[in-house]
Amino acid sequence: MARERGRDILPEIEGLVDLIFGLALSIGALILINTVPKTSEEILSDILAFTYGFIILVFIWEEVTKEMLLFKVETTRMLRVTYLLLFLVALEPYLFNLITQHTSSGGVDEISSMLYAADLGALMVILAFFAQRIIDGEGNLSPRVRKIYLEKRGQFVFTAAVFVISMIPIFWELSIWGTKLRFILWILAPLVGVVVGVYRRHREKVQENEAASGQPRVN
User: Is the pLDDT of residue 9 over 70?
Assistant: First the structure.
């Protein structure tokens, strides 16, 4: 009965996920609209910051949507994890706004950046948890799909670790070309994930072409 009830409410959960992510993206856009830059540099900074926040949320949304196609939110534990994910997503625009606002707030800037790193780190941990759920699932998944999510799990864990490590105070104190090292780590972590993903897809394409042509692979 519990599993049947879980399947009955799954469409509502998926709708709630889409709603929260959509609201988070909308709030980010509203914050950008209500921001009043004073210089051309601030305009560029606002656009770049919004682009970063937009890409992060869309990436997480896309991954959550893909993962939920491969497993069911059937248990109380999975529901609670999903609600936690939605809470962290809803919190993201507020914390991101505190970091990107033009007026400096002293110690508040450092605290808000630490909380933002913790927020994104927790989101990546949840994505890794969902990936593990798929790997351990009882569905008739192909070995290729399981292999993909084994690699994704590693990618999510790595990204989460980078965000957590960036919370160490020294990464706030040090700067490179006027940019906090903490922010540089935030940019590099997703980039590494993108590079790994592109390499994985290229490798799979090469293997498929070799299998189709019947040519032996040269290491």
Answer: no
Write the CA distances from 200 to 66, 67, 195, 203, 207, integer angstroms.
Answer: 17, 18, 9, 5, 11
CA distance 179 to 209: 44
The total of other beta-carbon atoms located within 10 Å of residue 99's CB is 20
CA atoms of 5 and 140, how far apart (whole Å): 22
Q: Helices 2-34 & 76-100, crossing angle to 10 degrees?
A: 10
Asked if residue 43 lies in contact with residue 37, where contact means CB atoms within 8 angstroms, the answer is yes
Token digits for 217? 């692979």
pLDDT digits (tens, 9 = 90+) for 36-72: 667 777 778 778 888 888 889 999 999 988 888 777 6
Structure tokens that stand for 93 in this block: 């625009």
175-176 and 179-180 beta bridge pairing? antiparallel
In whole angstroms, what separates CA 159 from the centre of its chain?
9
Burial, 166: exposed, middle or buried (Cβ in 10 Å; 0-12, 13-18, 19+)? buried
d(CA 217, CA 20): 46
Grouping H, G, I as helix, E, B as strand and the rest as coil, residue 176 is: strand
Among 101, 93, 120, which Cα is nearest to 27's? Answer: 93
Residue 110, amino acid: E
